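Subject: MYND-type domain-containing protein

B.,
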Amino acid sequence: FGYTAEATYKDIYIYFDFADKVSPVNHLATKAFSMYGLGGAQEMGPPKWGNIRGSVVLVRLEPDRGFSPNVTYCSTLGFDEIYKTLVFFRDSKTSAHKIALKRDSVRMRESMPGLPGGQPFAQNFSHYMGPGGVRTEHQVNEDQDKCDHCGKTQSIVGKLKKCQRCKVTLYCGKECQKSAWKKHKKICRQL
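Prediction pasted inline below.
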């Protein structure tokens, strides 16, 4: 299972024939859905199952209310959303696996808002184990930073970019920065 382009919880099951060694490689699906190991198992690095061959079947998954209590569930998985997801992961400079780790850590952190950050209990449960070990509180907090224009979090986008002038304001990319420039230029030099 994995994430669609803007999901805050693991919202799709991805089915493919792991035993298929003769169909053409589905490069788009291989890149877009390389978030987890077989059966949705989290691994300490990118999945090792190799290329997806042939077709894939995608099914919408209901949220786990224990980790995502405030998420609105929509059972429909439309063509536009699938297309947007494939294009997002195809064009992302950040791997699908790293984006999934970031989203996992933010989701887990938000499901336990009452935990004080400095306590050992909070450190054990509010951070997520990734390929480089435990993600720090600082990393998890950065994943919650938002684009100043559209409001998407870094965990959704992959990596936000700072305004090159003020080095403070964050954006998804050039399009958001350009759209926000008229408003931002008034305060940019003051920051």
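Helices lie at 27-32, 79-91, 96-110, 120-125, 137-143, 154-157, 174-188.

T.
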